[in-house]
Design a protein that fits this description.
271 residues; Rossmann fold; single chain; alpha/beta
């Protein structure tokens, strides 16, 4: 996809962070938008930013309050997009949440929560919107995983599982699309340390023996976020233009990818 002008893009998690940055950048390039988020107020804020003379008024933007973990809501979202936009050229399944807990302390409720949003949200998006995507060679699906879909970490059993699942699903879907003779592209993005509110909004369960509180740990994690959401959006859109199927996003993503490939068992010694 060499140009986004006149295209129709669907973005989930568009109320903040990478999703909002993607919406702003695409709108500035003349792309029509169907924006979804579970938080209606956040979506309205994204709309207010878009309305601040940042893009051509000819861009058609629609807002949709959606819980991506719920199939009925995503299907209703797709039906609405079909009525209001007609088709979809670019689908970015970006909505996601964070979770940190040792497996022994993690509740099944929290584990289901992170998997339902991070993994099933992607599956629901692809299932609902694939029929709306044109088989012209210019349509693209981008599923946002994480560098923790390349490597795993302590307190990351649930989060890494959800992001590895996104990676595996995306790879398999890409193969299937080619097998079916469709020319649309399927890519997976791997952000590393992006300056969003994902850490603060994460569910975290701390071991009783820990010397740090959940808030202290979240603050320490945020200190390692070296890439702005705007830069992350540039990396993702740049990867789409180049036709990449494995899009590294943010400082450190490429290095982590190399470590995972070269030292698939022993990479942990570097962290």
């Amino acid at each position: 996809m060499n140009s986004f002008s006149g295209k129709v893009a669907v973005i989930t998690g568009a109320g903040s962070g990478i999703g909002r940055a993607l919406a702003i950048s695409l709108a500035q390039q003349g792309c029509h938008l169907a924006l979804a988020d579970i938080n209606a107020e956040s979506l309205e804020h994204t709309q207010s930013v878009l309305d601040s003379n940042l893009f051509d008024g000819g861009v058609h933007v629609t807002l949709h309050t959606v819980d991506v973990s719920q199939w009925f809501e995503v299907k209703t979202f797709a039906d609405s997009v079909q009525k209001q936009h007609g088709h979809v050229d670019l689908l970015i399944n970006n909505a996601g949440v964070g979770m940190g807990a040792l497996f022994k302390d993690a509740s099944l409720e929290d584990m289901h929560w992170v998997m339902n949003i991070n993994y099933w949200g992607v599956v629901h998006g692809c299932k609902a919107f694939l029929p709306l995507m044109q088989n012209t060679g210019g349509s693209t699906i981008v599923n946002v995983s994480s560098v923790f879909g390349l490597i795993s970490s302590v307190m990351g059993t649930a989060y890494s599982a959800s992001k590895f699942a996104v990676r595996g699903f995306s790879d398999a879907l890409r193969h299937e699309v080619g097998f079916m003779g469709k020319t649309l592209k399927v890519a997976c993005a791997f952000p590393a340390g992006i300056q969003t509110d994902i850490a603060q909004s994460s569910r975290m369960t701390i071991d009783p023996k820990s010397r740090k509180s959940a808030e202290e740990i979240k603050t320490a994690i945020e200190a390692r976020f070296l890439t702005t959401a705007e830069r992350a959006a540039e990396d993702i859109l740049g990867g789409i233009r180049k036709g990449q199927t494995r899009i590294k996003v943010g400082k450190g993503s490429t290095i982590i990818d190399l470590l995972a490939r070269l030292l698939p068992v022993h990479y942990a010694r570097f962290f």
